[in-house]
Design goal:
alpha+beta; six-stranded mixed β-sheet; 6 strands; 36% helix
Length: 148
Amino acid sequence: MKKIVLTSVLGLSIFSVQAQQTEESAIRAVVDRLFEGMAKKDTNLVRSVFHPSARLQSAFVNRQGQPLLLSQSIDAFVKAIGSIPSDTNIEERLTSCEIRVDDRLATAWAFYEFYANKESSHKGVDAFQFYKTDQGWKIIQLSDTRRK
């Protein structure tokens, strides 16, 4: 009897870990699609990863040394991506990413490096919040830090 209970518990634990890894992979795929859309300047792809009510915020220190919190709408962000000159190539690379999931809510904390025309522009942390819709995971909040 103890073997049956132990086997059942281990089986459920393995299933739970596999389900968690599947959700984490799906969430990472959303982040990768965002960066792909940004690199291709594909505004439809960029918009597709965001929930319609998503918020974007950046925390940084300006050239005068003042801390700022910049808020931007999804529409403004998508427009900015679409207006990047065709001769400018951008790439955002994650150096690490930690994803946590509970039910239909998830978060990702990711260190990144941003490049323009293969030259380092800035780096920081992307803090994502996700909501699982019927169409899959969508970004509902993206906050980042930026530093040289």
